[in-house]
Please model this.
Amino acid sequence: MSSEKGYKLLQGNEACVEGALAAGMKFFAGYPITPSTEVMELSAQKLPQYGGKFIQMEDEIASMAAIIGASLTGLKSMTATSGPGFSLKQENFGYAVMSEVPCVVVNVQRGGPSTGLPTSPAQGEIMQAKWGTHGDHPVIALTPGSVQETYEMTIEAFNLAEKYRTPVIMLMDETIGHMREKLIFKDPSDIKIENRKKPNCKPEEYLAYKADEDMIPPMANFGEGYRYHVTGLTHDETGFPTNNNEISGELIKRLSNKVNNNIDDIAYYEEYKLEDAEIVVIAFGGVSRSAKSAIDEMRSQGMKIGLFRPITIWPFLETQINSVADKAKEIYVAEMNLGQYFYEVDRVAGKKCPVKKINKVNGELITPKEIIDAVKGGK
Model:
């Protein structure tokens, strides 16, 4: 665990590493790519100081595979990437979902598609985070809106990964990744740390994929005497592949339900001046900062307007968005893409009030003025 004390002026990317160390990260594998590179650089510098291991892999595919392997040995593991690197990780991300291997994948988003805009902000991987790999599967993705929150949510990303035995995505954007702000370090004694549930049976009785009542199987570390099979194929409780239709269906449902049935435990969000708001802006990451400035300005002009900021971007916060829509006369979804999160909001809120888009995809952050102009223009 990180022994940093007090406070420092840090980038969001640097805060991500400090949060990972505070959470107990012991292994990082990655390949440099902007705008996430500082996550890798600082991990290389600091991990050995905390008894951890760092390795630069030959590519993003191998990086994702490496953290899965390290996690199976019991090491809390993380990789970081951007843009096309996130695409390359998707197959092994699905493998981690299916084989229930906890790990953290950081994606500091940049403009795309393809190699796109390497050092410019974007939020174009909202849907890729949810559906980038194939098949039906659960996803937990967190979107911090400040340097402090990046530190704290990275700790939580590790906790959720360990608790639910699944990969977790830190879905940042370049604005937050490269922003410098004051970071107040938590006292280690005040940090809640989750560790994976371990088996309490004899090694010869261990079934690696036999779930408890909470739908999560205990997980033995490789090298502890518990031998079991790990595969991306549909498998039974032993871990060996099966084509049994009943077992296959139940496995996929359990993988989904262990996350989706615990949304209340996973849901992080902020409500800003929503008490009497008739107009609601929904924004996340770097755009939420512009939205707050816009809301303060419009409030000073007498408008009843507020912000709902999802921090947990997946699973979708349907209950909370429903509640917002019950009171709002209009909802605006501001995001640096062409409307990826908008469609989810409109699906839930569109029958209750008009839902409108504020979008920008030219590699620049949406400004407060653009949000004000859109809201006042009713567009």
Remarks:
- The chain has 14 helices and 15 strands.
- The longest strand covers residues 103-111.
- The mean pLDDT is 96.
